Amino acid sequence: MDKMTAIITGSGRGIGAECVLAFAKEGYNVVVNYTSREPLELVEKLDSMGASYIAVKGDVSVEEDAKAIVKKAIEAFGTVSVLVNNAGIAKDGLLLRMKTEDFRKVLDVNLTGTFNMIREVSGTMVKKRYGRIINISSVVGIMGNAGQANYASSKAGVIGLTKSVARELARRGITCNAVAPGYVSTDMTGVLTDEQKAAISESIPLKELGKTEDIANAVLFLAKRESSYITGQVLAVDGGMSM
Length: 243
Ligand SMILES: NC(=O)c1ccc[n+]([C@@H]2O[C@H](COP(=O)([O-])OP(=O)(O)OC[C@H]3O[C@@H](n4cnc5c(N)ncnc54)[C@H](O)[C@@H]3O)[C@@H](O)[C@H]2O)c1
What we know:
The protein has 243 residues and is an alpha/beta fold. It has a single domain (5-237), classed as NAD(P)-binding Rossmann-like Domain (Rossmann fold, 3-Layer(aba) Sandwich), CATH 3.40.50. Helices cover 47% and strands 15% of the residues. It has eight helices and seven strands. It has a seven-stranded parallel beta sheet with strand order 3-2-1-4-5-6-7, sandwiched between helices. Helix 1 (14-25) crosses helix 8, helix 3 runs parallel beside helix 4 and helix 4 (100-128) runs parallel beside helix 6 (149-169). The termini are far apart. 47% of the residues are buried. Residues 9-10, 12-16, 33, 35, 59-61, 86-89, 109, 113, 136, 138, 181, 183-184, 186-189 line the site of nicotinamide-adenine-dinucleotide (NAD).
């Protein structure tokens, strides 16, 4: 069997970088995607593992960049079997003060970026009649959250997109699922104060924030060839928050 190739967007750090390491450990060719600075620490780790990878700069919300990421992946590895749409941003604020540009920007990266990447990768997956698409949503896309009208809308949109793609591509051997993390310790949640983190932990049935490994494990599970009968699902990895 050919070696599988996985593209993980926004993977220079945090959950994305953890996914890159998890796929590399499983022997996949990995496509790292970053926006500004090359993620040297991650690249060093991949080199020391002897991993097969390329690192591609690109903004997923820009159509040409999404095209270029997929093109470079195919040039390097022949095809793409797994796409993990992890790139995401937050620009939090209360509704009354939220600027339209901040609403649009978050939708642009989190939702349109996910759409751009799925559209670009679907051709090669359809040709091979095989694919695993995993979109990183959020518990906030299921439950909503005060101060995150833009972010919650984008992540709820990702769920609708996931189910539509799952239905559209099901007969082509391609599954599409979403992983909805709860609160995970990364740069994104680094802005929270210790008091806020303690209050959040208290509200989580499992009483602690998640780790990047928790999310990478779920992504890897959905990416497996054996997970072929799971599609259009939203797997909450949230310590029980959204049940
Ligand atoms: N940390 C959490 O608690 C949490 C919870 C639920 C969902 N998520 C989601 O998980 C994903 C990863 O988040 P994280 O916590 O690792 O945060 P992070 O900020 O550490 O990582 C986000 C990554 O996305 C990249 N990125 C941003 N805009 C991009 C663009 N336009 N094109 C390509 N890459 C871009 C960033 O450079 C960064 O590497 C995001 O989609 C986020 O919304 C995180």
